[in-house]
């Protein structure tokens, strides 16, 4: 299974800044002795996808993605973006269900599941984001939240006969909402418990395919904690926010072992 180190730039960088950052990251990756299975994703703002993809196109380990997608080919959906538009700009992956979309924009589980299936049906690979709020964790609802979020998506994928292709086109990112952008990181025991729960749920819902899907950890990932997180069972990669905005800092995470 590949180890995925993914950058989520969120609402940061102009086109020129994105091109410079990806070009620098390209050079750093080319000059690094990375494990053969290491893959690097950069989820950029929509305006930056084409420039970032152009800067990354000669390195097969560096893939560009979009931060969201709308479940329609076209239509009167002001401000939204379709899978075809993302692909045309050079995106190969897309995020779905990031906690900031769920809790700030108000996306619910059913809508996230609809977007996930539609993106997969239309040629994009999907990184599904899941995770609990601090209140949910303190109330002992961690596994209930993960089960709810994953069940809706899995049922939708099964109904559309998409499960067979998932090992090559689908990843799950566990991000405790209380650790995103706060400087707080889940302790090793908390990460192990959550990722074990995600793996168990995926296997229950998707059978053997559930064993093959990469599970990433996200939430205040930094160079100082990247290597220790990657050593944990069922941690197959990292989704990085603020620490991914500067190429040299992000490269330290990419190279962590």
Looking at the structure, the CATH topology is TIM Barrel
Largest sheet: 8 strands, parallel, barrel
Strand element count = 8
Cα(first) to Cα(last) distance is: 15 Å
Note poorly predicted spans: none
The CATH class assignment is: Alpha Beta
Helix content: 40-55%
Strand content: 15-25%
Large-scale geometry: globular
Explain how this protein is built:
Helices cover 46% and strands 16% of the residues. With 257 residues, the protein is of the alpha/beta class. It has one domain: Aldolase class I (TIM Barrel, Alpha-Beta Barrel). An 8-stranded parallel beta barrel has the order 1-2-3-4-5-6-7-8, surrounded by 7 helices. Helix 1 (15-30) packs parallel to helix 12, helix 5 packs parallel to helix 7 (142-159) and helix 11 packs parallel to helix 12 (247-254). It is globular, with a radius of gyration of 17 Å.
Question: What descriptive keywords fit this protein?
Answer:
globular; TIM Barrel; 16% strand; 8 strands; 12 helices; 257 residues; alpha/beta
């Amino acid at each position: 299974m590949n180890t995925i180190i993914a950058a989520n730039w969120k609402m940061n960088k102009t086109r020129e800044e994105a091109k410079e950052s990806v070009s620098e990251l390209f050079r750093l990756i080319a000059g690094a002795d990375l494990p053969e299975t290491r893959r690097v994703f950069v989820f950029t703002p929509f305006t930056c996808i084409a420039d970032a993809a152009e800067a990354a196109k000669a390195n097969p380990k560096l893939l560009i993605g979009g931060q969201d997608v709308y479940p329609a080919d076209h239509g009167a959906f002001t401000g939204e973006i379709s899978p075809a538009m993302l692909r045309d700009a050079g995106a190969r992956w897309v995020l779905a269900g990031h906690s900031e979309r769920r809790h700030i924009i108000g996306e619910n589980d059913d809508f996230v599941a609809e977007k996930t299936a539609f993106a997969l049906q239309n040629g994009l690979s999907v990184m599904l984001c899941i995770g609990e709020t601090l209140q949910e964790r303190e109330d002992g609802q961690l596994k209930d939240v993960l089960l709810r979020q994953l069940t809706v998506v899995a049922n939708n994928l099964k109904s559309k006969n998409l499960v067979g292709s998932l090992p090559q086109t689908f990843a799950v990112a566990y991000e405790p909402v209380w650790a995103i952008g706060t400087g707080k990181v889940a302790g090793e025991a908390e990460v192990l418990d959550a990722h074990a729960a995600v793996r168990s749920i995926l296997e229950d819902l998707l059978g053997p395919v559930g064993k093959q899907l990469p599970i990433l950890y996200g939430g205040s990932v930094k160079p100082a904690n990247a290597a220790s997180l990657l050593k944990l069972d069922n941690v197959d990669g990292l989704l990085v926010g603020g620490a991914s905005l500067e190429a040299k800092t992000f490269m330290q995470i990419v190279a962590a072992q």
